[in-house]
Amino acid sequence: MRTIDLIKASFKQPTLLLEGRNKKGFHVFLYLLLLAIVLSLPVIYQATLITRTIQDDGEKIIQKLPDFSIEDNTLVTKEKTDGFIYQTDSIIFTFDPTDKRTKKEIESDATSNVLVVGLLKKEIIMILPRIGTTTDIMDNNVLSIPYSMYQANGLNKQVLEQLLTSNSSQSMWFSVIFFVTWFMVFFNLFVDIVILAFFANLFTKFRLIGFRYKDVFKIIVYAATLPSILTAILQFIWPAISFGSVGVALTLLIYFNALPKRIKK
Q: Which positions are tagged coiled coil (predicted)?
């Protein structure tokens, strides 16, 4: 059965989802990647809103920013400064070379539709917009990049100015948010489906249905189609909703309804 037919079956005839067990593993993996993109759409939408203003915000941030560099994996300013916080509806930027604010305090700045960036004494903190599916993993979307990393070791005011104010800054920040979000969502979705398939496989054995674990896994992936689309739509309205709270139960329900009373391998 073609993938498009399996997608239609998830809406109209769930019993046909059983044919998903005959799909090649590579095709199932690609479809899982597609579901991750669907679940990423609410965050991508927020990223679009944020990146529209990133250049204007960046120019204001650079005006306040003192000259600095990274020495011995530590942020150092040429003149003594206490740092500052720049805040708008789309971004909260913290420059704190003396570590007056803790990582937890910066994390508390995060809201559902704001990008948080912090340059601390020993590391860079970035927190993506908080949407349900992305908050199931990775410390509430917190990315911590120590200055000891090669990518951050050459950071200074001129480099940051290029990142924030160049004509390509919007597309660059959008790409960063998109790919990081997509990876987080994909990993979280994969773990959810592995666990779902495990319990669904146990249930299937109790029903004396001769499916192997990999058959159940494939069926669960296609059974997650409708829940993934529904979760993404709901997240535009209620960002706190995640696939874990909506999609898991609905995916299992669809899978159980698709099962026959008994079937051989």
A: none
